[in-house]
User: Fold this.
Amino acid sequence: MIKFLSSVKLAITLIIVIVVVSILGTLIPQQRSPSEYADRYGGLAPLLMGLRFTDLYHSAWYLVLLSLLALNTVVCTLTRLGPKLRKTFRPRLEAEAKALLAFKDSGSLKMNLGLKETTTVVRKALAGRRYKAREQREDVRIIIFGRKKVLGWFGSDIVHLGLLVILAGASISSLTGFRAFLKLEKGKAQTVPRAGFEVRLDRFDTEYYPDGQNVKDWKSSLTVIEGGREVRTEVVEVNRPLAHKDFVLYQNSYVQETKSPLLVFEVLDPVLPEAANKILLRPGQSSAAGKTGLILSLQRFEPDFIRDESGLISSRSEELNNPAAQVTLSRAGENLVSGWVFARFPEFSMAHGSQTSGPTIVFRDIRPGISPDFSIIEAAQDKGAALIWAGCGLLMAGLCLAFYWPTREIRFLLEGKKDRTDVTAAGLASKSREALSSEFAGLFKELKDHA
Amino acid sequence: MISEITLFKVALLLYACALVIYLVFQFRRKEKLALAGWVTALLGLLFHTAALIHRTVASGHAPFTNMYESLSFLAWACLAAFLVIDRVFKIPRAGFLFLIVVLAFMLLANSPLMPKEITPLVPALQSYWLWLHVSITLLGEAFFAVAFITSLMYLAAASREKKGAKPAGLPAEKLDQISYRCVAVGFPLFTLGGLVLGMVWAYKAWGTYWSWDPKEVWSLITWFVFALYLHTRLVMGWKGKRSAIIALIGFLLALFTYFGVNYLLTGLHSYA
Assistant:
C-alpha cells in the first residue's frame, strides 16, 4: 500500500485525471439551474447533474481526487525525506579512487606534502569556496566531503510542504469560511453577522472619470462600532478592503434606486411660450404646466428603454443608459400629446399629438438621490487565508531552492604515501553542472599550485 | 511627438526584418547574419519598449488591460526572453521560428479585431497587483514559448539524427537541455505571477483567493502539466521526445489559458 501510494506513477496518473476532469468542468457552465442544463444538454442533463459535473469543483469525487494527490504527495515526500536527511546529517564517508575518477568532474594528483599538511590545504581550498567539510580518517587514508547549498536538496520537499499547507488552508476556508453581504444605507449601522461588531456607512461616493460615463471607483466610508463605541473609521474601496478582527470588509457593489426618481420635463408650446417651465414628476403623478391649463402626467419610467420585436417595452438594465418616460399632455380632459420621450435623445420623440404644430414635451433631467443609494459591503471571515499565504511562501522558496540553489559536493580521497600524498577528487551536482565544472577546475588548479 | 502606433509599427517592421535575416541564416550559416538578426530584433524591442512606455504614460495604467495591450506585451516578453536565452545558449537557429511566433502575436495585436483605444480602467483593475500579476505571468509564459520552439527543434533534430544525418544546428541533446532550462525559468515565474500573485490579488479585490473561475482552472491545468514535465523528467528520468511533447502541450495550454478562455469561456476574468 505504502509502495503504491509513494509511487510517482500514481502522482502522474492522478495529475492527468485531474487535468482532464478539470477541463470538462470549464466546458460545462457550473452551478446553473436544472432548467438551463435541460435546455442545453437535453437528455444528458440528468447524467451530468447526477455525476456532479455541473458543480464539479465542489463535488465529493473531485475532492477525493485532490485528497489522493495530497496523500500521494505526503507519502512520496516522507519516504524520500529519511534517506535525504541521513545523507545530509550522517553521510557515510566512503570513497574509492576508481569510483571517484568515474565522475565527469574528477582528477588525481600527487602532492609533495605529508597527509596532515595536504588535509589542511584541501580544507582551506574548500573553505575558501564556502564548502563545509566533513572528514573521516582511516590510518593512511583521509576522506573529505565538502558540500555547499545543501538546502537545495530539500527544495522539492519544501515545494510539496507548501502545496500541502495551501491545501490545508483551502480546507479550513471551505469548512469554516463565512461571508455575508450587507446592504448598507447611508448614516445607518448594521451588525456584521457572527463578527461581534457593527458597521455604519458614513459616506458613499461613486467617482467618475472625466468623461462622466465610466465609473472610476466606489468608496464607502465605514465606521466600525464595537459595544456602542466607535473603534475606527476607514474608507473602503475596490481593491482596498478593511480588516477588523478576523473579518475583512470589501466594497462589493452598490444599488442605486432608480425605480422612483424625480424627472424633470419641459412643455414647449409655440402658442403659449410661458408654458416652458420645469415640471417635476414621479411616475404616476400629474402636474399643471404653469397657468396654461395644460396638465402633464407621467405614467411610466424605464431607465434603460428597449422595445422588442413584438413591441413590448421594458428596461434592459437598472442603469440609466436610455432613460425614457411615458407621458400624456392634456387640456380639459382632452389628450393633446401622448407617448414616450427620451432624456438622451430630446429630438427623437415617440410622443405625438393630433396637431403637428402643437405643444411638445422635452425630457430634461433625472434627479436621483431622492431615494438612498446602498453600498453593498461583503464581510468575509476566512481563517484559512493565513495558511494559504504561508503555503505560497514555502512554495516559492522551495521552487527557488530546487532550481537555483543547486547542492554541490566535492569528495576527496587522500592517501598518504611516505613523503607525499595521492589526492583523488570528484565534483557532484544534480543541477548547473557547468558552474560546478569551472569551480572544480579552479579548486584543482589551486591544489596543483601547492603540489 | 511620435505616436504609440508609429512606434509599435516600427517595432513590427524591425521584427519582420529580423525574421527575414534569420530566414536567410537558415540557409547561409554565417555568424554575422545571426548577429545582424539579433541586433535588428533588439532594435525592434527598443522601439516596442518605447511604445509600451508611451502607452503607459498616456493611459496612466499598466500596458496590459485589454487584448491589444496584453498581446503586445506578450510579444515583447517573448522576444526579450528569446534574446536572453540566445545570449546564454547560442540558439540563433531558433530565431526564425521564434520571430514567427512573436510576429503572430504582434499582427494579432495590430489587427482591427483588437480595439486600441485607451479605455478608463474599471475599479477592479486599479491596483498595483495588476502590474505584478500580469507581467510576471506573461514573462513566465514567454519562457514557455522559448521552450516550445526549442522542443520543436529538438523533435526535428532528433528525427534527423535517428536517420543518421549530420545535425544541422545544435545537437538534439543540447536542445533538450535548453528546453528544460527554459521551463526551469518559466515555471517559478508562472507559479508566482499566475497562481500566487493571482490569489493575493483576488483576495484583495474579490474577497476570495480562489473561485474556480475558468481562467483560474486553466492556469492550474497549465501548471499541472508543467509539474508533470518536471516530475517525469527529474524523478522518472524521461528525456527527449516525451519531455518535448509535454513542453509543447504545456505552452499550448498556457496560450489557451491566456487567449482562448477569454473568447470561449466566460468568467470573472472578463477584462483581458
